[in-house]
Design a protein that fits this description.
Number of helices: 12
Shape: elongated
Strand order of the largest sheet: 7-8-6-9-10-11
Structural class: alpha/beta
CATH class of the largest domain: Alpha Beta
Number of domains: 3
Bound molecules: guanosine-5'-triphosphate, magnesium ion
Strand content: 15-25%
Helix content: 25-40%
Radius of gyration: 27 Å
Order of helices and strands: EEHEHEHEHHEHEEHEHEHEHHEEEEHE
CATH topology of the largest domain: Rossmann fold
Length: 422
Amino acid sequence: PGVTRDWQQGLGRIADLTFDLVDTAGLIGFENDQLKDQIRDRNTVLMQEADVILFMVDADSGLMGSDHELAETLRESAYKTIVVANKCDRSQAERQYMDSYALGFEKVIPFSAAHGLGLGELYDALKEMFQAQNYDNDDLSEDSETATERAPEPPLLITVVGRPNVGKSTFINYILGEERLLTGDEPGVTRDAITVDWTFDGRALRLVDTAGLRRKARIQEKLEHISAMDTLEAIRFAQVVVLMIDATHPFEKQDLTIAQQVLDEGRALVIALNKSDQVTTELIREFLDHVDMILPQIKGVSCIGISAKTGRNVKDVMKASFKAFKAWNLRISTGQLNRWLMHTLEAHPPPLAGRTRVRIKYMTQIKTRPPTFALFVTKPVDLPESYTRYLANDLRQTFNFEGSPLRLIVRKGKNPYVDKDK
Ligand SMILES: Nc1nc2c(ncn2[C@@H]2O[C@H](COP(=O)(O)OP(=O)(O)OP(=O)(O)O)[C@@H](O)[C@H]2O)c(=O)[nH]1
Ligand SMILES: [Mg+2]
């Protein structure tokens, strides 16, 4: 028990019924009162706001004290509660599900989530309740039509990552202005990547909170491994990643590993140095001055000292995210690029390879997200990484690509239109 912690919302559908479906945390299995209180408060609000409550019990193991407690708190919401007696695929459960009537609710449905049994009955029960509450699914589809007419711009996907306990969830809660996500003193509070839609400065956002990433060697439990994979998936899905670092323990090896993962996935990056209320401003300034040295792969990335708790500079992180997103999407014309290339090569020619010098003839941007460039060279010799990094950094500064990784692909061939190697 106790796997789900933060509540999660998704779109539910059974046949022609569509509805918003919310998964909540059960109230047992928490060693920690701070978390338990947050979950209980949140669940109370969610149950009040719901049109229908699906009260799931385990028919296989039978009713427990906590089921009776919850039934008591749901007494006033009985008119909108359906008891779902789960695990009825087990023979024991089939006999026992009738016991669930003891909770005192009118509607009890034998169910098996694993085998999809009972969906038909659930459908009937939901339909009846929706009708009783005057919900007409046709109305809903009309709404969505007007929504598509307006064709809103797709939301900007921002994923917040970092080591456990650095303040990721607190940061998102501050932006939302409510305690949407669970936070806590001990590491490992967030378990699943949680997505929240929001607008900031008139812009649609999709913010993703993630489970803190620990060093691989220290990840022992299966649950923790699943959480880590979920976080990596969220990085892949992101457009901009906010890497949160704890200013009281800044730039640990794991912070750099995560930054590298973000860049390897080609996502735009913003660094937030959190808990700055706990250290001196001198210390913060010193870290900000050194960030280019610590992360030479991506010179010029925004690094902002913030406090998720007090809200200090939180807005600046959002602004930097918009800027990084712009850089990530930026396209430079081939003419401009090659003028820049000639200058840059003159100022600092490529190194010798054996007796000859590699000559870079031409370059062009082949894609965005992240910006990717093809460099055409005469000799089939690889350019040293230090040199491509020099080019990338100059390119980044000149054309405002700050905050985005850049990819340079070296291709052999005199003329891009006659690529002999292919
Ligand atoms: N002083 C101070 N404390 C903070 C700040 N931001 C977060 N905290 C505290 O740090 C602790 C961890 O915050 P969370 O937001 O739960 O951290 P998290 O990164 O989501 O942690 P996991 O979900 O475990 O990965 C909580 O006790 C917060 O109150 C801050 O700016 N200043
Ligand atoms: Mg968290």
